[in-house]
Amino acid sequence: MNELLLIALVSGAAGLLQGAVGFGFGLLALAVLSARLPVGEATAILAPANLVVNLVMLAYLRRYFSFDRLRLLLLSSMIGVPAGIFFLVIADAYWLRLALVIILFTAVGQHLIPSSGDKPWPNWSALPCGLLSGMLTGAFGTGGPPAVAYVHRQGFDRRRYAVSLQAAFGLGSLLRLPGLVAGGVLDFSHLLPGITAVLCALAGATAGVLVLHRLSNRIVARASVALLAIMGVRHMLLLLRELSL
Questions:
Q1: Distance CA 223, CA 236 (A)
Q2: Which of 3, 6, 137, 159 could be cross-linked to 143 through a Cys-Cys bond (beta carbons 3.0 to 4.6 Å apart)?
Q3: What is the pTM of this model?
Q4: What is the mean pLDDT of each run of 10 residues along the chain (245 residues)?
Q5: Domain that holds residue 13
């Protein structure tokens, strides 16, 4: 398949997924594109599209946004981005991934236990989730899962849930993009595929938001738990792989 066509199809589908359930762009797009392209190149191509999807969804759903229960998450994630870059240089990234796996499976497990399924995580839990989210963004560019776990456990309406995630993701993407340019990861060679990804992701996210309005809170919650479980298994396998090396 032509590379540009693949980028267009994958970006559109990933944008649709994020628009409908609030996250999943990187999970789907990077997983598919990295099977065909080097991970660094796939990351560079998708980075602007990821930010555009966040900003567009923020614009569409801005009336549902509130800083309540999000201030500490956003602030700590900003602190976490440079900390993640520093941590990656001086420490073993194994511990970051281990913390991520624990948070993901805790969120999934609590959803599946009836007695705790509707109990939101306390405000203080935004601190470790935000820090880890920022650190993972700085270290790997994949800081979404801890933020998803925290926001998912707040019991927000599906629209507030989705727009809250875009605020967290958009902040991380905005902080990370200059680093990709400065580090030479993102350059003019990615202009055409990057524009293709942006336009198709934009169309997909727009359609996804229309789907979001039609879904029930229960369906969005179940889809979110399924994606959290998939991410948890994926990172656990990566963790086991690192241990075996």
A1: 20
A2: 137
A3: 0.80
A4: 88 92 83 78 86 92 94 92 68 69 78 64 91 78 79 90 90 81 77 92 94 89 83 81 74
A5: 3-244
